[in-house]
Design goal:
Blueprint: H1 17-21, E1 31-35, E2 41-44, H2 46-52, H3 56-59, H4 64-67, E3 68-69, H5 72-84, E4 88-97, E5 102-114, E6 117-126, H6 127-174, H7 178-202, E7 211-213, H8 215-229, E8 236-239, E9 247-249, H9 251-269, E10 275-287, E11 290-302, H10 330-340, E12 344-350, E13 353-361
Parallel strand pairs: 8-10
Antiparallel strand pairs: 1-2, 1-6, 3-4, 4-5, 5-6, 7-9, 10-11, 11-13, 12-13
């Protein structure tokens, strides 16, 4: 079967986009598309809009080939389902979007009888999404375990530190030799430094100040801070979704999260690199074992050398850093703040392409 490039007629009665779009299909995390007998799109749910980065108002009436580049595998599967009038399933087939992005998806094609011919109902579940849910749940669980370990460690460390500092303070008052008293000052200063370090490992402990916030106010503030800090050395591109609603966040703490990540990106790319801040919504998304109707994804892309592979598994642990002068606390604290918001930070990195993604539920 070959696809005609002529525009298809308006959606047929009984499968109009409005009726399809407002029903149960929009609650699914799976992308669902309805194609007519010539493979023109008649309906698409919200997850499908997100996958193909195309609104229903623009996509309905277009051929599937105008939304994605169909190779022989896709054509054969669609033709088989239509000709044999039976469902077809393929795991891990590559979907090449018109944007150039590739997605591995699990595909189910189900024929649907219609007066004008056999329609096709396509269900697509991205393999990356299934992996991300598992990865996210594991990361969330490990972070919670880590927080409990740090709390216990902090208690065990801070108590003797207090004793050491107190003893040094008393000793300094008894010493007549000023030269010896300087050593007690060193002991007290080091005890204070260690106590501060332990407090930083615990992360912010004040209650979240949740207020309705436009996330782009935060991203713009961070962008301006980094560009000013770099004295114009780095230019940060923006790719924002203007349709994102306001949602409850602690503006100051989220600013610190994005500032830490974007500053790391700037230090990675140097004066000749590129950074992009991108915002998108993700529907029916799972975070920490909880399904959310709407999640905000803030992505920080950079074309630097990438995160060293040997530290990727421990990237969000305290004291882990790829820089000689780094403290290794920035990403750990950022992850804790994201978790307190019910969210998560993920990282995927290879040389020339690193992306940190901050995921936040948008329920108000």
């Amino acid at each position: 079967m070959t696809l005609s490039h002529a525009h298809s007629p308006h959606p047929v009665e009984g499968v109009e986009q409005n009726g399809f779009h407002s029903g149960t299909f929009d609650m699914l995390a799976t992308s669902v598309l309805l194609l007519d007998e010539r493979w023109y799109l008649r309906a698409i749910n919200l997850a499908g809009e997100s996958l193909f980065d195309a609104s229903a108002s623009r996509a309905v009436g277009e051929s599937l080939e105008q939304l994605a580049q169909l190779d022989n595998d896709w054509r054969e599967l669609l033709t088989q389902a239509q000709a044999e009038d039976c469902p077809v399933v393929r795991r891990g087939i590559v979907l090449l979007l018109r944007s150039g992005l590739q997605q591995a998806v699990d595909l189910t094609i189900s024929p649907v009888a219609h007066d004008s011919g056999v329609y096709l109902l396509l269900e697509l579940t991205t393999v990356d999404r299934l992996y991300a849910i598992s990865e996210g749940e594991n990361l969330w669980a490990s972070q919670e375990s880590l927080r409990q370990i740090i709390k216990g460690l902090a208690h065990e460390v801070k108590n003797p530190l207090g004793g050491i500092r107190g003893a040094a303070q008393l000793l300094s008052k008894e010493l007549a030799n000023q030269g010896l008293a300087e050593y007690t000052e060193i002991i007290m200063a080091e005890a204070d430094r260690l106590r501060t370090l332990v407090d930083k490992m615990l992360g912010p402990r004040e209650k979240l100040d949740l207020r309705a916030t436009n996330i782009h106010q935060i991203t713009e503030h961070v962008r301006q801070l980094i560009e000013a800090e770099s004295q114009g050395e780095v230019d940060i591109a923006r790719d924002y979704d203007p349709g994102l609603p306001e949602f409850l966040t602690d503006k100051d703490q989220l600013t610190q999260v994005l500032l830490n990540i974007t500053r790391n990106a700037w230090q990675a790319v140097g004066p000749s690199g590129h950074i992009t801040l991108r915002t998108r919504s993700r529907r029916q998304y799972t975070l920490g074992g909880h399904r959310h109707k709407l999640v905000c994804a803030i992505e920080i892309f950079d074309d630097g050398p990438g995160v060293p592979k040997d530290i990727m598994p421990q990237l969000f642990l305290p004291m882990v850093t790829g820089r000689a002068n780094g403290t290794g606390l920035g990403l750990s604290i950022a992850q804790m703040i994201a978790n307190r918001h019910g969210g998560l930070i993920q990282c995927h990195s290879e040389p020339g392409a690193t992306v940190f993604t901050l995921l936040l539920p948008m329920e108000t």
